[in-house]
């Protein structure tokens, strides 16, 4: 796989797809450079899997065009899935139960000589770290080993783009994080172009070079994970990646007046008038400075490495969450806290 980032590996131009009267993808455009790992995230039914199926060629478009490696594969002309250089990896891995690990990997390499196929399979099994499992059958493998077998099978033909649909969701939490980290570092090392579907906001942020947030068949925002999290374009994107308390504000000359004080949030150009201020847990800090505001603790959730406190401030209906890492007395009822203005979001 190539890592020349100037080349576009996948180009979707104004694509549309409907099932009967239901528009599932409506006028969507997206470019993915070679070597980029993109996570596609959004609520259930927003069209993530349909988009993968369109790129794979198992679903056609009703309008627009799909290009892979500079070649049109759907739109004015249609290229069959088996003639597209696309690797697929599904949530359930779809391994062939009657074939051992090596033969599962060999399956996708039919067009080559037996000797070449064995050499390629051995190399990829080694890269993925399961060479020692080559003779084993899928039913005898752990979830993580099955995941690696499916990954090896998808990568063996050196596809121009690897499409992964919820590839880690079958693994339990502890294993999931480790397998995800290992898989992504392997894919980055190979310079693979990857589109990975997930419905998990944290997985999307931690896995993608770029995160594409979808809603109802459209792209809401496509950005670097940090930008998407810290500077979302709109309230939907802000809420998708982090729950926030919303407080009413009044904007005037770049300042925002709220029940918790007057702030100048950075990078926010809000028109004068009423606005909604999103207060995420990390936009609040427990402290004892003179400008801190007293609050009553209404609820606490112990999370191991931190504790989430819910604070009720005078003049605010909604409790605001804040995370603390220092142990707090269990009978503590009152506390003081203040806003970190640069972490506020205003819409
Ligand atoms: N073959 C089909 N015929 C009719 N409707 C379909 C078909 N495939 C998908 N849909 C509908 O298209 C919409 C998008 O489905 P899709 O599977 O792409 O969503 P998704 O974002 O991947 O959801 P999830 O996260 O739940 O898997 C859904 O409303 C689904 O019911």
Automatic annotation (TrEMBL):
<dbReference type="GO" id="GO:0005524">
    <property type="term" value="F:ATP binding"/>
</dbReference>
<dbReference type="InterPro" id="IPR003593">
    <property type="entry name" value="AAA+_ATPase"/>
</dbReference>
<protein>
    <submittedName>
        <fullName>Iron(III) transport system ATP-binding protein</fullName>
    </submittedName>
</protein>
<keyword id="KW-1003">Cell membrane</keyword>
<keyword id="KW-0067">ATP-binding</keyword>
<dbReference type="Pfam" id="PF00005">
    <property type="entry name" value="ABC_tran"/>
</dbReference>
<dbReference type="GO" id="GO:0015697">
    <property type="term" value="P:quaternary ammonium group transport"/>
</dbReference>
<keyword id="KW-0406">Ion transport</keyword>
<dbReference type="InterPro" id="IPR027417">
    <property type="entry name" value="P-loop_NTPase"/>
</dbReference>
<dbReference type="GO" id="GO:0016020">
    <property type="term" value="C:membrane"/>
</dbReference>
<dbReference type="GO" id="GO:0016887">
    <property type="term" value="F:ATP hydrolysis activity"/>
</dbReference>
<dbReference type="GO" id="GO:0015408">
    <property type="term" value="F:ABC-type ferric iron transporter activity"/>
</dbReference>
<keyword id="KW-0410">Iron transport</keyword>
<dbReference type="InterPro" id="IPR003439">
    <property type="entry name" value="ABC_transporter-like_ATP-bd"/>
</dbReference>
<feature type="domain" description="ABC transporter">
    <location>
        <begin position="10"/>
        <end position="241"/>
    </location>
</feature>
<keyword id="KW-0813">Transport</keyword>
<dbReference type="InterPro" id="IPR008995">
    <property type="entry name" value="Mo/tungstate-bd_C_term_dom"/>
</dbReference>
<keyword id="KW-0472">Membrane</keyword>
<dbReference type="InterPro" id="IPR050093">
    <property type="entry name" value="ABC_SmlMolc_Importer"/>
</dbReference>
<dbReference type="InterPro" id="IPR015853">
    <property type="entry name" value="ABC_transpr_FbpC"/>
</dbReference>
<keyword id="KW-0408">Iron</keyword>
<keyword id="KW-0547">Nucleotide-binding</keyword>
